[in-house]
Amino acid sequence: MTSVVVDPTKCVAYGICVAVHPEVFEIPAGSPVATVIRDVLQPDDLDDVREAIRACPAQALTLAEA
Ligand code: SF4
Q: Ligand 1: which atom is nearest the Cα of residue 18?
């Protein structure tokens, strides 16, 4: 089971991850950080999630295996 985690101490809500994959990431109204909508990633999510991890300027995203 693969998931992606947002480190709230690093995320500065640039929103790049939301632009790359809005079905996985969102920035709720008023939130200072991005949150993960889809707790368990689907195989089709992985390419875009890896792209979001690379593109995140705060290096706030990591993949987690459980
Ligand atoms: S791209 Fe990185 S810094 Fe920007 S909202 Fe997503 S997790 Fe936060």
A: 6
User: Ligand 1 centroid to 56 CA: how many Å?
Assistant: 5
Query: DSSP string spanning the chain?
Result: -EEEEE-TTT-----HHHHH-TTTEE--TT-SS-EES-SS--GGGHHHHHHHHHH-TT--EEEEE-
What is the position in ligand 1's atom list of the atom closest to the CA of 12? Answer: 3
CATH architecture of 2-65: 2-Layer Sandwich (3.30)
Question: Taking the domains of the chain in order of start, what are their residue ranges?
Answer: 2-65
Which atom of ligand 1 lies nearest, measured to the CA of 61? 7
Q: What is the pLDDT of residues 9-62, one digit of tens each?
A: 999 999 999 999 999 999 999 999 999 999 899 999 999 999 999 999 999 999
4 pocket-lining for ligand 1 (C-beta < 6 Å) = no
